[in-house]
Design a protein that fits this description.
alpha/beta; 7-stranded mixed β-sheet; 21 strands; 23% helix
């Protein structure tokens, strides 16, 4: 190739301009924004509100499954030997619940039991409660597959000898109604990443993170890859932006090294998000390790934490859980705490199955407030799923996995667990036209695997 041809080819490449696709975005998370923090309230209100909201739907599912002739009773109205339906909230009695043991240890200055990944072998019995009383459940129920806080309709009878309710069958509420999925013939993508973990001591995540920035902003990859990147309309960071580390300087007394978030980690995360916000709409959700309130719903990270990124209108700090829509497609997800807690106290095969269970019971965080911390509410339970989303995601999972859930009323929902980026160097690109998922994987100390060229749909 002559020098003139090289110059002409170079000029042609420089003249190519890629324009990112536009989209219509609506934030639907108003129910997760705290109007007031009232800690003088009892948690009984949130359970009562949950039961009153979900029970009519559970009764509808029960009559559809078992017929209209069967009797529906309150716990106070039960009669020994009479077959009936009872609707209430499930409660697991666990002997080694970590939060309770930690409180006892602090009060009596004793070392608590070490933290565990699973507490299922310590579960004593399963209880159903309504507004007034409780009753033990036995029979056709697998206690390890049930989740505390789920509203359920059980069919059976009271055993007159011991007063326990013998369950023959049970059902949850139907999958909530869903608005029709918008029809589109244009590919647009939503990218979800979680677990950036700025502040890691080994800093092995910094190079893949910079590769991710270069890839999403079109500074890396072939022309085909760069053209594909323009179809990415939005990026969601699903929690754990920064990671706390132990610091001897912040010790309040000898032998105690509390974990703190360094200003260097916050500055690095701000630089990272600034590069992305310059050419892409970003929503940042808080997570377990981020500097915001620990209880759910977590409020948006304060904008002063990101002084550079907040200069861009494309940068948004949002709640956890987070509900929004893109071009009429409704999306709901969390940074992973509710699903992780469900897995701790139940025997599900993986986090994807636990995520599916929360959608089937119609509640984002069923174990709140029992073992997942949340704010007390008096008026309503904000975590009840009133409308079935088209995409339902969970961040900070162990691996990337997907499933399409089809409801009885033609609901179609993509379930997706997104792994921690600092552990797997993987994020997910969701095609909003057909709900296909394409992993974007950036290998450590290597060039990225370009999504369009080498990634396969899940």
């Amino acid at each position: 190739m002559s020098s003139e041809e090289i110059e002409e080819h170079t000029a042609m490449i420089k003249s190519i301009k890629y324009v990112r696709c536009s989209h219509v975005y609506i934030n639907l998370s108003s129910q997760y924004v705290l109007k007031a923090k009232q800690f003088n309230l009892q948690y009984a209100h949130i359970y009562t509100s949950r039961l009153w909201t979900v029970a009519p739907h559970a009764a509808t599912a029960a009559r559809k499954q078992w017929g209209d002739d069967i009797i529906v009773r309150k716990l106070a109205e039960l009669r020994p030997g009479e077959e009936c339906i009872v609707i209430g909230t499930l409660v697991k009695r666990t002997t080694l619940k970590s939060e309770a043991l930690l409180e006892i240890g602090n009060d009596y200055h004793i070392l608590p039991q070490p933290a565990r990944d699973k507490y299922t072998h310590d579960i004593g019995c399963l209880v159903l409660e309504d507004e007034n009383q409780r009753i033990n459940l036995i029979g056709n129920v697998d206690v390890h597959r049930m989740v505390t806080g789920s509203v359920v309709a059980v069919r059976g009878f009271v055993d007159g000898s011991d007063g326990k309710f013998v369950v023959d069958d049970f059902t949850y509420r139907p999958v909530p109604d869903q608005i029709p999925r918008p029809v589109s013939d244009v590919d647009r993508y939503l990218v979800i990443v979680s677990g950036l973990d700025f502040g890691r001591e080994d800093a092995t995540n910094l190079f893949p993170l910079q590769l991710l920035v270069d890839l999403l902003t079109g500074q890396l990859g072939s022309e085909v890859t760069q053209a594909w990147m323009t179809k990415i309309v939005r990026l969601v960071v699903a929690g754990n932006v920064v990671l706390a580390s132990e610091s001897a300087k912040s010790a309040s007394y000898a032998g105690k090294k509390p974990k703190v978030i360094s200003k260097e980690a916050m500055s690095a995360s701000d630089d990272f998000l600034t590069q992305l916000a310059a050419g892409l709409d970003i929503d940042v959700m808080p997570g377990t390790t981020d500097p915001t309130n620990f209880m759910l719903p977590q409020q948006p990270l304060h904008r002063c934490l990101f002084p550079k990124a907040t200069r861009y209108e494309s940068f948004n700090c949002v709640t956890n859980p987070y509900n929004f829509s893109i071009d009429g497609l409704e999306i709901l997800g969390t940074s992973g705490q509710p699903v992780a807690d469900v897995c701790r106290f139940s025997e599900f095969d993986d986090q994807l199955e636990a995520l599916e269970h929360t959608l089937r019971v119609g509640h984002v965080a069923p174990t709140a407030p029992d073992s997942t911390a949340c704010y007390p509410q008096s008026d309503e339970d904000p975590f009840v799923i009133k409308r079935c989303p088209h995409v339902y995601f969970c961040g900070n999972a162990t691996n990337l996995s997907t499933k399409i859930l089809n409801g009885e009323e033609n609901q179609t929902t993509l379930l997706i667990t997104v792994p921690s980026f600092s552990q797997t160097f993987t994020c997910a690109a969701i095609n909003l036209r057909n709900l296909d998922v394409m992993p974007i994987q950036l290998l450590k100390n290597s060039l990225p695997i370009a999504a369009k060229d080498n990634c396969t749909s899940q």
